[in-house]
Every structure is written in C-alpha cells, then in structure tokens.
Amino acid sequence: MQLSFYPLGALCADDLLPLWGDAAVVRTTGIGTPLTLEECAERLTALRAADDGAVFAVFQNGVFCGLAGCLPASQEPPTYGLFYQLVPSAWGKGIGTAAAKQALSHVQRHRPGARILADVLAENPASERILLRLGFSLLSQSTELHLGRPAAVRHYALML
Known about the structure:
Layout: E1 3-7, H1 13-20, H2 23-26, H3 37-50, E2 55-60, E3 63-74, E4 79-86, H4 95-110, E5 115-121, H5 125-133, E6 137-146, E7 149-159
Parallel strand pairs: 4-5
Antiparallel strand pairs: 1-2, 2-3, 3-4, 5-7, 6-7
C-alpha cells in the first residue's frame, strides 16, 4: 500500500466530492447530509482557514482517498481535535490508522505535549479501533443528537 500525504492546498472541491458527497461517509461525521460541489468548496475554504498545517489529503497509489488531521481546539493547554474521513473504497485497509498516525506525528513534532481529543459514534467500531490502536483512552460517553436522533458518542484523549 503506497500512501502519500499532501497539505490541503493540493486539493480542490472536485477531489472532495467523492468524500463529502457520499452518504455512507457523512453519516459518521458532523456533516449530516451529502454535500454538493459548491458546498464542498465552502467547507474546504473553512477547513483551510482552521488548519495550522496538521490536516492532510490522503492518497493511495496516486488516488485521493480521504482526509486526516488535527485541528486546534484550544491554546492552553495546547489541545487538538483528531479527525479522519475516508472514501468507502479505502475502509478496512489500514489507511485510516496510517492517516491518523501521520496527523498525530505532525502535531507531536510541532506541539510536543499537546493533548489530542477525538469523538467517535459508538455505532462506528472501526473508527473506535483506530483510536484504541493509537493509544487513546476513553474519557467519557454521552448521548448527543446526530442526524436528528440520539446517538452514543464516545470521547477519547491522547497526550503526545
């Protein structure tokens, strides 16, 4: 498996449509419903504005397969929120784990001692396994509205 990671500047909205326009992908994110091309462009602009260099486009053998990154959540103490989103054809191949490791490595190099938070829907055990493989610890579980219905959300943390 040949993975490459590029900064967000390497992407355009067309690249993200297979990701953010896919109902199977967005149902496990805060996005809600599949996005149009125009909405992908708006979301990409907002993501670029929030990124401090720790968000990456993930390519397998030269083909875009997702995003992974750590977005700043607070300055003191330095805290980041980890996320990873992959197109369905990339699920179950270890790409999510590798992409999350890449994002964590970047933060560890540039913000040693940072705290990383990650939330996962309890109904998404594959995503939860990624967090556990990377050494995250469960902090708590809550019930939150997700896509208009109550859902169990598990909150994890990792100290770098």
